Amino acid sequence: MSPPEDQAQQKWQRRFESYHAELLRFLRRAFPRLRDEAKDVLQDVFAEALQRNPEGENLRSWLYTAVRHRALDRLRRWERRAFEQLALSQGSSSGSSRSSDTAPAAKAPGPSTQALEAERRGRQGILLSQVLEEFVRWCEKRPGRLRIKEAYERALRGEPPARIAQAMQVPREQIYEWLRQARSWVYQRIRHEDVEGSVFLTLHRVKPD
Amino acid sequence: MVRWVIQELGAMCPSRQRLLAWRENPHDAHLRDVGYHVQEARCPICQAELEREG
Per the CB < 8 Å rule, is A26 touching B51? Predict the structure, then answer.
C-alpha cells in the first residue's frame, strides 16, 4: 500500500474506532441474532467506508445507515438459506408430514424439483419483506391509513380481530374493513410476482377470532 | 416466515422520522401505530434506534 493510501486508512481507522463501541451496542441490540457476528458486520462497514470515503456527509449517520443495511443483508442471506434448507428437508420427507389439505405426492420429488422449491421459498421470504416495507410507506403517506397499518400489523403478529378491535377501540366490523383494505393492497402488489399466491397465503392464514 | 420478516428484518418498522416524532409526542393520535410497534410489539430494531438517539 502506498503512503497516501496507508495514511487514509489510518485516518479512517481512527475515526471508525471512535464510533466502534456505540455501533456494536446498537447492532447487538437491534439485531440480536447477529450478536456473534456483530464485529464482522462492522468490519464490512469499515471496508465500505474506506472504499466510498463518505467525506462531507454526517459520518455518524452514514455509519448507522450502513450498519443497518449490512445487518439486514446478512439476515436476508440467512433467511434465504434457512428457507432453502427448510424446503429441502420438507422435500426429503415428502408424504409423511404433509397436511391433509395437500395433495399427496406419488413419490418424493427429485433433486431438481427440490432445488426449484428451495429457490422459490427463498424468493418468497425476500418478496414478503419488500412488500410489507412498501405497504408501510404507502400507509405513512396519508394519516387516514395509519390505523390500517396498526390493525394489519396486529393481525400479522397473531392478534384475532376481536382483540384488535378492543385494543384500538373501534367496532369489529371496522377492523374487518381495514384488514380487507390492507390485504387488497398487498394482493395487488404481489400478484404479478407471486404467481402461485404462496406469499399471500403465508401472510393471510385465517386466525381464530 | 411472517414473524421473521417483521421482527427481525423490520418490515413493518415506521420511518425514522415518525419514530423520532413519536418519542417527542407519544400521545399524538397520528403516531399511535408507532406506539404500538415500539411499546406493545417491542420491536428491537426501533428500540435500538431510539436508544442510540439518546
Answer: yes
